[in-house]
Amino acid sequence: MEPQLKNVMRERWPARELESPGRCPVCGTERRTLVHPGLEDGLFHCSEDRWDVHACTACGTHYLDPRPTEESIGRAYASYLTHAAPDDPRGRSPAASARGRAARVLRALANGYRNARFGTRLEPQLPVGRYVVPCIPLLRDALVQQLRSLPLLPAGAQARLLDVGCGSGDFLQLARSAGWSVHGIDFDGVAVANARERGLEVRQGGLELLQATEAESFAWVTLSHVLEHVHDPVSWLQALHRLVRPGGTLWLQTPNIASLGHARYGAHWRGLEPPRHLTLWTLPTLRKALEQAGFRSVQALRTPVLTAMEVYASSEALRRGIDYAGFMALPRKQQRPLGALWPALRQHRSLARAEFLTVLARR
């Protein structure tokens, strides 16, 4: 079966709805080099434009210039992944194949591990998973990232959690199952509607919705692949600091422009994603920005091997010019899992070259 060709691009972005930051959005330096000229939106095909990515010569941050304005960038998310409707497990029919049975067992083992480590109440579960999963580091690391390193709450404890850019609420559902009082915000109206269908408390908009009433009120704030989307990321880090209560934690993840994947795939690296990704960080620059925002004890975490393999598979699809809907959706002859395993293991050993920058920052 031949790979599916990408859809035809949409209309061009109006010039009046573009802006030029002119300088690094992180450190303000004007000196820069053009790293990736003429990039296309090869993922969601929001326009037929080509986009330029520049590198700050002072701090190493990469940024889009020109870029869509705040008022117009919503058009880049018209077919975004957060628009998927919430899953309804009741509508699934059990697979009769050996692969289906194995997947159900693996899910039950994973739920057993999640329930023991994070306090979730997920079904179906195999309690032995609390012992089996730690013996499978690839799976264990992926599950810990999925729960965003949440601590296990003491029995009966109440703690508030905020997910910024919560999408359709997948993580909020898991955190709620673990006993957290969950809250979310997202700019995307379709994603917010999907989250509310799940009974989640989610508001549409940005951090300004919370500044007046929610200062220092959240024990755990998470920001998963959001920082790269905002026009003024430094101000966002400062606003996040005001929301975390003293002694609380910010969990943040964003693509790493210094990653092995970017070095390997260049302009086809999945993390570039123009025009939605406006700013891409390095670990030293992100750490410094968090500390300047008031956070302390900034701890970097490793990117799971399975996560990196997914990034490499999507980057390979971009390089080959085919639509990508998940690793297993690639034609079998193009999956090549062993080819992605070695670089995924290499990036796992290096915090500075990991695919994603993942940090825990304490207030």
Automatic annotation (TrEMBL):
InterPro entries associated with the record: SAM-dependent_MTases_sf (IPR029063)
GO annotation, biological process: methylation
Keyword Iron: no
GO molecular function terms attached to this record: methyltransferase activity
Protein name: Class I SAM-dependent methyltransferase
Pfam families in alphabetical order: Methyltransf_23
CDD domains, per the entry: AdoMet_MTases
Keywords: Methyltransferase, Transferase
